[in-house]
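pasting for the record
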Amino acid sequence: MYKTPKGFRLHIAIFGRRNVGKSSLVNVLTQQDVSIVSDVPGTTTDPVEKAMELLPIGPVLFIDTAGLDDVDALGKLRIKKTYKVFRRADIIVLVTEANLWGEYEEKVVEEAQGRNTPVLVILNKIDLFEANEKIKGRLKEIEIPYVETYALSRGWETTAKVKSELIKLLPADWITPPPIVADIIEPDDLVVLVIPIDKEAPKGRLILPQQQTIREILDGKASCLIVNERSIRKGIDNLKEKPKLVVTDSQAFGEVFASVPLHIPITSFSILFARLKGDLSEFIKGIEVIDELKPGDKILIAEACTHHPISDDIGRVKIPRWINQRIGGEIDFDVSSGRDFPQDLDRYRLIIHCGACMLNRKEMLSRIYEAKMQNIPITNYGVAIAYLHGGLERALAPLRDSGNETGDRPCMNKDTAQDERTGFCTASPRARRALQHLTVSQVQRPNGKGWKGINRPPKLR
């Protein structure tokens, strides 16, 4: 339970003014003294996180935030940090006193609705204040559910009332989790996983996307063969039957494209996670910018974790090198790590994001949304590397054949283009052509003697 990665927990953020009972509510919901409770306003300074199992919902992460009405110089910094929590909140719980509603509460509701994040209002301290009928009328008008409670009671009754309303607000993809690879394979299929063991590989273990993919393959009653990029051809040659699919680490695309026969489908962990955590269609559109880049343009490399970079780091060294080779000049690269995703993106020509295995889907979609609102194209490592190696169409083909290349999820916000029949995100015309009309002649030939298709890359080192 406690080892469930944060990226796979439901993020429930608690917002409100100072001293309205936010921390008390967190303690009631967890039935533990997670947050310090005091009559002194501003006791909570930085967001406090508590991971737990909230039955029947499952693994959740409660985030207790600082008060939104903190007005001193330090308070402004706290509020800035608090607002960053909107990016990753799956559900927002807005706590206020039963007779208090004003500008701060309206701002929270407006921000949440702009991000399509459901809100539950807690009208707290009903032992001290009578619930205001105007407030309840306002909440009904904007169709936001509310619970009247007394958080200091610490009883299970309060927990049950709030939990009942939270269940009604659960995102659809929490109730029915989207697949990583299960919709592409069938029972008894064999999947080959290409996992390089290099300086970036953690000692003695596999990284999270690899672990999760293996688990889903086994859950689907299929089997997997694990090889590295140097032994993949021998591994495939030793098989009696061809594998259903090859999934590779993106940085090994060059070797894998050259080693795996064209009749065997290939994709990458990063592309699979692009549709699991983000919006693959948006990433496909974003990659088209690469051939429009000019020396001196700025690109943001965005990483979800804060790993120690190595001499041949994929995001800081390899991708920049491949792009510079492609355009024949020097691009200016910036790197952001962890939750330090810039708010001002105007200076960038393109954003290239990692696979986001350490983020929950809401935070990844928030980053995509912020890029779209500033008209900055965004893509991810897997899509970019496949494109730079001339094999994007081939890497997308297994998802096209599954009929679920976008992950079959609603668009991340109301401004995103949607298919009228399904309600799901649509790709650009060029991306749709790549997905719908892919033929064997459009991908890299394994002997390297000729290319067809939209992108002929230079030789990459």
